[in-house]
Design goal:
294 residues; mainly alpha; MetI-like fold; 12 helices; 0% strand; globular
Length: 294
């Protein structure tokens, strides 16, 4: 009787959870386990009888110069992009939070959030066209004498990373802007009124009221943006493909090339596991930040 009551009470719930659980196992847990397992084998998938090699591929990855270059590029790209996202996002959020005409405010909100509505492929195409040697950016910069005409941004080893960071910043700042705008609108007006009574100017209000109130939001979205940017692949692959040379090679493009160009699936799996572990550490920091803010 007790067992029948238990079934009647929980069977419907388990029936609803069943399909989602199966999908998670098939689409998430199984691929993760497979990648980890392959990282300990000798060139799995191609080799019909792969041998267990333990941590050989991990030792190879940590000693590989290309891996070191890809990791360095990934950190430069991520830190620069996240910093620009926060600075530009905060600046636009402050402008949109200002007391101006409602119609003008709505117009600029729609205009500034527009890059967020585009897919990564469209962002890549837009910036490849803008930074084309005959594109509008080259024309304007050469007109005022900042660059020489015909500069190939994504093909220049010295400029490719800068162009990539610029494209990613443009496509990613709206999320930060919207999040910070919501945080700004949640700050009590009474705090600013008290600051005015105490004789604080606009900069002092921003420094001692706005920033401390936004600190939990900035920390949370900054870490989340860092995780997203750290593992970014699509935009880099569609603009530079990790080139020219290794100038914009990141961990994502390096893994792809190892697996599908060089067919070194086990080495690619090892680098993918390293990427996943470092991302997991960042995710733990993010969850702690969320918990602390609550």
């Amino acid at each position: 009787m007790v067992f029948k009551k238990f079934l009647r009470k929980h069977l419907v719930a388990y029936a609803f959870l069943g399909p989602a659980t199966i999908l998670l196992i098939v689409l998430l847990f199984y691929p993760i386990v497979l990648v980890v397992w392959n990282s300990f084998l000798d060139n799995s998938i191609i080799n019909p009888s792969p041998k267990w090699v333990g941590l050989r591929h991990y030792r190879w990855a940590l000693a590989d110069r290309v891996f070191s270059k890809a990791l360095k590029n990934t950190l430069v790209f991520t830190i620069s992009s996240v910093a620009l996202h926060l600075i530009i996002g905060l600046g636009f959020a402050l402008l949109l939070n200002a007391s101006i005409n409602r119609r003008i405010q709505t117009f600029f909100r729609v205009l500034l959030i527009l890059p967020w509505t585009f897919t990564v492929a469209i962002v890549a195409i837009i910036w490849r066209l803008l930074l084309d040697p005959l594109g509008v950016v080259n024309y304007l910069l050469s007109l005022i004498g900042l660059i020489k005409p015909g500069l190939v941004w994504f093909g220049d080893p010295q400029r490719a990373m800068q162009a990539l960071i610029l494209a990613n910043t443009w496509g990613g700042y709206p999320f930060i802007m919207v999040s910070l705008l919501a945080g700004l609108q949640g700050i009590p007006v009474s705090l600013y009124e008290a600051g005015t009574v105490d004789g604080a100017n606009s900069f002092q209000k921003f420094l001692y009221i706005t920033l401390p109130q936004l600190k939990p939001v900035i920390l949370s979205i900054g870490l989340l943006d860092f995780i997203w940017t750290y593992r970014l692949f699509e935009l880099i692959w569609l603009t530079t493909g990790g080139g020219p040379g290794r100038a914009t090679e990141t961990l994502g493009t390096y893994i792809y090339k190892l697996a599908f160009t060089q067919y070194q699936f086990s080495r690619a799996s090892a680098v993918a596991v390293i990427l996943a572990l470092t991302t997991l550490v960042l995710a733990i920091f993010y969850l702690r930040a969320q918990k602390a803010s609550e």
